[in-house]
């Protein structure tokens, strides 16, 4: 009875964390001589006020759903996968190879194979840190961070020396064939008579991300493997006593995590750029950590947190375009949200818990003082 209800832990604490981050951000905006209310209105209008804004918000959110789910799987196994950035880079390589060297006439034929390609390459890049953790005791945080840099160097080498078309100075692959181009939300909604911006990059991979959320829920809460992952995450001793092998759980969780991060490339490589470029991930792997923390490693929470960060990305771009507020301030706002939902989570949680404890004690005292019938 002393603990706060689940809805407060899942919704109230993250909401208060976000509000605190926005209040501090507003004070920073005031300090540089801008109006925070006007800045907020411009962000809302730019990100949510048109189908163009929604298209970019949902495009960014799709990236963050994949990387957020990737981090959440590892969280359930009590592992901190900070390698989503590198795994998404290598996932982009897998998607690009499928699109370039498997010329099929229609995107419906290419998409399932590209999903598999991105997932396999992302999982393969996560497999080495997972093996080092399971067999050698190497800390997963250190190895995954290192593999981000190794992955960036490897991709740079391949784009410059192997995959770059002859005569092209840009470190990128050739454009993918027409048959591998994914339909945008405009293409999907137009037959239904719904108007949507032609130039917005949101595409069919948003539906794949939503399906991934559902499959994530099935895996973690409706399968034996998911139960083993959660058991191991709560108590390694209990998992071993129950006969669940730590090596199997570590490898399985990290392979799924890397595969989900690699699937992000369906959106940004196959869906938006339609070629593989050097900096295609754009930090989405690291944002996935904040999304998983804010979403409490639950697919519904991950989806909502991804929408929030998609709003911050698109609204921040509009803010930097139309005001004198520097683009770096948007990074500060994102960092504040990450700070309060992650590192300073207990700072918000403890006062909320005390409020609910006081309410519960008052209810108990009132029930005790009432005469029994």
Write the layout of secondary structure elements.
Layout: H1 6-31, H2 36-48, H3 51-76, H4 84-101, H5 107-136, H6 140-161, H7 185-189, H8 205-222, H9 224-234, H10 236-241, H11 246-263, H12 265-273, H13 284-294, H14 299-322, H15 327-343, H16 345-369
Description:
This protein is mostly helical and 373 residues long. The chain has a domain at 62-301. Helix content is 75%, strand content 0%. The chain has 16 helices and no strands. The longest helix has 30 residues, at 107-136. The mean pLDDT is 91.
Low-confidence stretches: none
User: What is the count of β-strands?
Assistant: 0
Mean pLDDT across all amino acids = 91
The topology string of helices and strands comes to HHHHHHHHHHHHHHHH
Shape: globular
Structural class: mainly alpha
Task: Record keyword descriptors for this entry.
single chain; 373 residues; mainly alpha; 16 helices
Quick synopsis:
The chain has 373 residues and is mainly alpha-helical. The protein has helices at residues 6-31, 36-48, 51-76, 84-101, 107-136, 140-161, 185-189, 205-222, 224-234, 236-241, 246-263, 265-273, 284-294, 299-322, 327-343, 345-369.
């Amino acid at each position: 009875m002393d603990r706060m209800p689940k809805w407060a832990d899942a919704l109230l604490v993250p909401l208060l964390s976000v509000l605190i981050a926005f209040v501090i951000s507003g004070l920073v905006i005031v300090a540089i001589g801008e109006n925070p209310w006007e800045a907020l209105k411009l962000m809302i209008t730019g990100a949510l006020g048109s189908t163009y804004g929604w298209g970019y918000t949902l495009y960014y959110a799709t990236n963050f759903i994949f990387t957020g789910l990737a981090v959440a799987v590892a969280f359930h196994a009590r592992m901190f996968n900070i390698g989503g950035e590198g795994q998404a880079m290598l996932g982009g390589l897998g998607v690009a190879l499928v699109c370039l060297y498997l010329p099929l006439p229609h995107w419906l034929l290419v998409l399932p194979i590209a999903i598999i390609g991105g997932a396999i390459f992302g999982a393969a890049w996560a497999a080495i840190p997972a093996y080092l953790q399971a067999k050698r005791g190497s800390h997963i945080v250190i190895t995954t961070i290192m593999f981000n840099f190794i992955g960036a160097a490897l991709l740079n080498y391949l784009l410059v020396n192997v995959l770059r078309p002859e005569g092209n100075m840009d470190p990128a692959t050739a454009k993918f064939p027409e048959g591998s181009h994914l339909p945008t939300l405009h293409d999907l909604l137009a037959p239904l008579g719904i108007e949507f911006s032609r130039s917005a990059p949101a595409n069919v991979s948003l539906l794949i991300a939503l399906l991934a959320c559902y499959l994530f829920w099935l895996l973690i809460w409706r399968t034996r493997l998911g139960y083993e992952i959660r058991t191991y995450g709560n108590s390694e001793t209990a998992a071993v006593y129950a006969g669940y092998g730590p090596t199997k759980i570590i490898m399985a969780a990290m392979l799924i995590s890397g595969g989900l991060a690699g699937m992000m490339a369906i959106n940004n490589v196959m869906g938006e750029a339609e070629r593989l470029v050097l900096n295609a991930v754009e930090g989405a792997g690291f944002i996935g950590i904040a999304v998983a923390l804010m979403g409490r490693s639950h697919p519904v929470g991950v989806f909502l947190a991804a929408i929030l960060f998609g709003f911050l990305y698109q609204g921040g771009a509009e803010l930097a375009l139309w005001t004198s507020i520097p683009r770096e301030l948007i990074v500060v706002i994102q960092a504040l949200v990450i700070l309060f939902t992650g590192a300073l989570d207990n700072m918000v949680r403890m006062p909320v818990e005390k409020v609910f404890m006081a309410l519960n004690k008052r209810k108990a005292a009132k029930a005790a003082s009432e005469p029994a019938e």
